[in-house]
User: What shape does this take?
Amino acid sequence: MKFKGIEKKEEGKFITRYDLTYETEEHQEKIYEIISRNKNIESFEQLHGNRADAVVIIVTDKSGKKILLNKEYRMAVGDWVYNFPAGLIDAGETVQEAAKRELLEETGLELYEIEDLIGPSYSAVGFSNEINVCVVGRAQGEFQKSSSALEEIIPGWYTKSEITELLKTNRFAARTQGYCYLWSKSCD
Assistant: This one.
């Protein structure tokens, strides 16, 4: 594929839609629609991004025997979906600060230990260039209702056997489903 150009189509509050024009090996024009957190992409280099847009928070309890999942109503699919807590990184915020803030806002829990950062990765590479960093650690505290009236979130701790059952009958975000499947099969 040879990149030929980019055209901004529509700018929203949180995402902007673009048409990318490519030329295939057979010299055919291909128009590809994407969305981005970047409101001003003007070049091929800017498609790749240079900083994370969001954090994904993967935490266990103190014992390491339970993993935290949010059951959240996702408007794009009109259904409840299991997902890791996640959110956008605010201007001037580090990945670690964003993870602590987002976890507290969505669940009321404190991220007291960060064991690892995994990233960068793309949220939905089929149609977006949004970049995530996964923050892996441990959390503690008591669940509280999300501090945003615009989100409907039910946080919960789940054992490996509970995750195995949830995976059979419930909808998950893809990254959460894959991680939870492997976590549920791992040895203690």
Notes: Residues 103 and 153 are 12 Å apart (CA to CA).
